[in-house]
Design goal:
Pfam families: APH. It contains nine helices and nine strands. By secondary structure, the protein is of the alpha+beta class. A hairpin with a 3-residue loop joins strand 1 and strand 2. The termini are far apart.
Length: 291
């Protein structure tokens, strides 16, 4: 697979040295990194609409003057019968998975403040709608048709409930710029400062609590309260976090990835049974009852 992919990249973008590229595979992309460019290649065959949306998000981010560096488009979307891909600039900095919450909290707060400071009126047209990556407004229906339908009755009722509660809470939220997959896996460091923010595939104008929800997955709600605007945003973040496996499952349906779908479904049911659906440490939103 590596040789075939690198040969294809060499044919499409011969100005970059793909022979020594570092390859990573995510849920939806093969990522090939060189010193001069990064290729993001769909790993579910041609996905022109998905890649076009991601390209539009990066183009919008470039126009916003964010307080950190980030990848910028180097090409449009290229596709053939087997793949869709785009080229972006490398982002400076390094991953620091060794850093615990006390070491990262102030920098995450600074970056979240920078996102919140963006006036929605200044965001260019073309930015993706909330949850566009997993169906957008169709997401609840995809969940109902493909996930709820195969759960046992109690789990199905709880799945419907958390979706409905999220949508109701979200309707009361303000709208802001949301990265959508905010966490240590998508920030690059230079010493004690965040240098770059990467992976804008889920960026949208939506509920800023989405970004808090991503942090809860890594650090827990009790820690993340320190960088939240208020208690209401943490309550919404807990509800967003509970829906993450259902969003991944819906996205897997859209790209036809059975293995990813089963992984998402297992995450949902195991967290639900363990009482960690909203928070890895067991916290739940006010009024939630596991029944």
């Amino acid at each position: 697979m590596r040789a075939e992919l690198l040969a294809w990249l060499t044919e499409v973008w011969p100005d970059h040295d793909w022979r020594r590229a570092v390859l990573h595979k995510g849920c939806f992309h093969h990522v090939a990194l060189t010193a001069t460019a990064v290729a993001r290649v769909s790993c579910h065959g041609p996905q022109p609409r998905r890649l076009a949306r991601e390209h539009a998000n990066l183009t919008a981010a470039t126009a916003l003057g964010l307080p950190v560096e980030h990848p910028r488009p180097l090409s449009g979307v290229v596709e053939d019968s087997a793949r869709s891909a785009m080229l972006v600039t490398p982002a400076p900095g390094e991953h620091r998975p060794d850093l615990g919450w006390p070491s990262v909290a102030a920098e995450f707060a600074r970056l979240l403040d920078g996102l919140r400071a963006v006036d929605p009126a200044d965001v260019p047209r073309g930015i993706a709608a909330p949850r566009a990556w997993c169906g957008g407004q169709r997401w609840p229906d995809i969940v109902d048709d493909h996930i709820v339908a195969i759960l046992d009755p109690l789990e199905a009722a709880l799945a419907r409930r958390i979706v409905q509660e999220l949508l109701a809470a979200e309707a009361e939220a303000s709208t802001g710029l949301v990265h959508g997959d905010f966490g240590p896996h998508n920030v690059l460091w230079d010493g004690e400062r965040i240098r770059s923010l990467i992976d804008f595939d889920h960026m949208c104008l939506g509920d800023p609590a989405i970004d808090l929800a991503s942090l809860i997955s890594f650090y827990g709600a009790r820690a993340v309260e320190a960088v939240a605007e208020n208690g209401a945003s943490i309550e919404r973040a807990l509800r967003h976090r509970a829906c993450f496996p259902l969003q991944l499952g819906a996205a897997a349906v859209l790209v036809g990835d059975r293995r990813l779908f089963e992984h998402a479904l297992t995450n949902f049911t195991s967290r639900l049974r363990a009482g960690t659906l909203h928070d890895p440490h067991g916290r739940s939103p006010l009024g939630w009852r596991h029944r």
